[in-house]
Amino acid sequence: MPHTTVSQEEAQVWLMPVFNAKAGQEATLNEALVALQSLSRKDPGCLEYTVFSDDQRPGTFVLIEGWARHGDLQAHNEEVHVKEFVKEVQSLLAAPFEVTPITPLAEPSSETQGA
Predict the structure, then answer these.
(1) CATH code: domain of residue 89
(2) Per the structure, how many domains does the chain have?
(3) Is residue 8 part of a domain?
(4) Cα 33 from Cα 51, distance rounded (Å)
(5) Residue 45 counted as domain residue
(6) Interior angle at CA 45, CA 40 and CA 46, nearest 5
């Protein structure tokens, strides 16, 4: 049987943006991220869109986002709420936010767990 691969366009996309607030801007950045989270979860193809506060680095927020397809991520990035967030958040950040592509690890099959 030939090996089949999922095209990049059809593969899920997972990202981990990290935001570091300027001193005194933590609450404002928090509010902006919560608003973005609420709107983005409604975007087509959104699998996950959750903002976390870094417990060891005050003022640092980590976003875990997952999209069903690359095209869904592209459409999300063109949404007004995303463009406005990116524009408005610049003045709240100590440095430009970084986005790291991430990949979920495959769960072990039941066969390898001795089931």
Answers:
(1) 3.30.70.100
(2) 1
(3) no
(4) 7
(5) yes
(6) 40
| C-alpha span between 57 and 18 (Å, rounded) | 11
Q: Give the pLDDT of the chain (115 residues) as one tens digit per residue.
A: 444 555 556 789 999 999 999 999 999 999 999 999 999 999 999 999 999 999 999 999 999 999 999 999 999 999 999 999 999 999 999 999 999 999 999 776 655 555 4
Question: 80 lies in which domain range?
Answer: 20-104
Category of 48 on φ-ψ map: left (φ > 0), alpha (ψ -120 to 50) or beta: beta
Kindly state the tokens that stand for 75.
């459409």
Q: Give yes or no for a contact between 73 and 67, defined as CB atoms under 8 angstroms apart.
A: yes
Cβ neighbours for 75, distance < 8 A, ≥ 6 positions apart:
43, 44, 45
Position 41 in a domain: yes
pTM over 0.90: no
